[in-house]
Amino acid sequence: MSARRAALLAAVVLGAAFVLVVALRTPWSLLPDLPGGPTPPDPGAGLPAAVVERAEAFAGAIRPASLVSLVLGLAVSAVLGLTRLGARIVQAVARPLGGGWVWQVLLGTAALVAVGRLVTLPVSVYGEVVRHRYGLSTRSWTLWLRDVAVSLAIDAALTAVVLLVLVWLVRRAPRTWWAWAAGAAATLVVVGSFLYPVVIEPAFNSFEPLPAGQLRTDLLELAEENGTPVDDVLVSDASRRTTSLNAYVSGFGGTRRIVLYDTLLDRLPDDEIESIVAHELGHVSTDDVLTGTLLGALGAAGAVAGLGWLLSSMRLLRRAGAQSPGDPRVVPLVLLLVAVGTLVATPVQNLVSRQIEARADLHALDLTGDAGAFVRMQERLATTNLSDPDPPAAWQWFFGSHPTKAERVAFAEDWVRAGDR
Hints:
The protein is mainly α. Helix content is about 70%, strand content about 5%. It has one domain. It contains 15 helices and 4 strands. The longest helix is centred in the last third of the chain and has 38 residues, at about 330-370.
């Protein structure tokens, strides 16, 4: 069997394994059948008309910017990856340092990532202006620029190192590089899942323990009752950047902690905070992070195997100005293929995510037994975060990672109905 066919076969097998894990691990059915069927979602989710209008106005202002940014990013990747322009940039930035292949990959990748970010920067500025206008962002422009710079530096550095390893593998093992790279990609996903809470999160926020008090005691007891004890309850200084309300559980085992946005403490009563945390603890109970890590590892390995098949096409390589998969001028083409693959995978990832988030909602309702607090919390989140309670179906299908607020309120009503049977 040729190396190209082996790569394609591996991509198909890994893709099938991905689909199997999705089918087996995704909670497709959560509540028993109810008389009359599920409660139809109220488009307004019980929110005041003025709140719905404001949320829709915000969505109407920000959605076009999101689409423009997506299209611009893909267009730039296509121009750089399917013409010789990207190859010329890769060579040019490394020339002052001798033009060796290592410098071409490292500096070329950083330059291409920076170009893509700079092209979409005006749209990002517009988005930040809109968030300021609607009271969602509290960042100064200095802090915003700092966040952009840090995010760009992390993205460029990690991408450059990954592509350096990829090109090195191609040059060392021209026939089997894709297999080694697939294993490395899967390993990177697993390691990154564990390191993110302790490496990336602190680059953007500071964390302090929640002071002793009834809320801290209740949250620790809630985690114990859930069977997933936590090491600490921390407060993130999110208000430096946003007015949004959120909480999450991060870490594994002895590093597991509940993290609350400081905005929660100012705006939500304790029972609603507990409902949010119960939702997040639901993700821990059902090992959603581990499932996501497994799916990510399979997806990454399958994508790299597919990359091995695609990069065997001399026609595609010549179009990008590269002579072989081990030519550093292949970097722009790889970045384009990754961008396209990510876009294609987005609706699948979000379909799974919506079902998993719905299961976490069910867990929160079961753990707290307080549907009233859950509904009030959803309404308050929608009001503060300006979430469109009933976005267009196509938008929700492609971009929606959570059920809509209208769907979540209707789900809570169905949970009450199921308990009354």
